[in-house]
Amino acid sequence: MILVNATDKYQIIRAPSQTVKKTSTKRKFDFFFGIFKLLYLFGLDIGGKKSKKATVKNCLSVFNLRAAMFHLVCVNLTYSMFLYDFRKTEKTVRKVSLVRKVPELFTFLLWYSVYYKRNSIKNLMSRIHHVNQELSLSTTTAVTVTGFAAILVIFIVAPLSILLFESEETLLFYTEYYNFGVRTFGAGVNYAVTVPTIFAYYFYIFTFPACVCVLYSALCLTLKRALVAHASLARAEFAGLRKRHLLSISGRYGRILGLVEHFEDALSLVAFFLSFHYFICVFYFLNIYQSHQESSPYAKYVFYGLYGIVSYVGMAMFASSVTEADRAARRANRDLFRRAHPGGGEGQSTDPERAFALTGWGCFTFTKSFILAAFGSILTYTLLLMQLD
């Protein structure tokens, strides 16, 4: 129906029914899009060559990184459309919403980097096991620490993030999405789609990067223990050094160094995206704090900022410890070579100042000085925002 204004006969005003119909069509498309991504996530590959029934066994076998990445992108698109429907009148909140989408982008890139390097990571795990056997090291400590950290992340960080991020706009999104599904398809179907979608959103954004951070830190801890053990054995054999001992020590350090280089090749890209994810989390917290009107921000924003700072500093500290351990191992090898070859020569190849350093895809190096500089910049910017407020 079209209404004509009496004051201006050429002015056309759309009836409310047309706007409602347009919005209803858009939301119906979003709802079917949500059903499609959930079917894809739980094992029903629509249009694929290897379609399987969505049974429990097939769900566990088909639940892979490819489906998870697809699901993450779909959730981001759908969630963004609903957020902008309710926030289009507030420019500040729209800007914050854009900043909030950047960590989700880096989370997707993190998924892709892990999936792209999956074979290298598997090979790295087997090589670490062989080196630990050669050095008579037990992996119980690293496995225990990793297990406890994973339990902490999955059962505490993820539920806490869901509870803290229950804001008004999110509740409005829940209510609108749920009411539309009840009117169209019934309560049971919409509940089955909405709840897993929202839970998967927070699970991927918070839990997966935290688990990758725990894995990266545990592998760095294992490399550090291997280098420290090699340096200790080299110093213990310093008194009774013989030529065959020298060759054995040189070959052992070469294998450990090859392991570290393989670690750098497999996880350098992962560390790059993971570091930027945590940097953006901190930037999001600072952006929220800058535009916050009250004296103290909400607990969820403080949690987001601490989550990024603590995770990044912890990951970088473990990576920098590998550099320190490698420098000590090279120093021990240099002393052995100098005793075996007083004239120099081979000892120059083990200069401790040329220690191997883990990097983030070659863009930055994980050292203690870099950590302090980055952390000092964050604190300085935070104090500046507090003074401006």
Automatic annotation (TrEMBL):
GO terms for cellular component: plasma membrane. One of its GO terms (biological process) is sensory perception of sweet taste. It comes from the Eukaryota. The chain crosses the membrane at residues 31-48, 68-86, 98-115, 135-165, 266-289, 301-322, 370-388. InterPro entries: Gustatory_rcpt. Keywords: Cell membrane, Membrane, Receptor, Transmembrane, Transmembrane helix. It is found in: Cell membrane. Belongs to the insect chemoreceptor superfamily. Gustatory receptor (GR) family. Gr5a subfamily. This is Gustatory receptor.
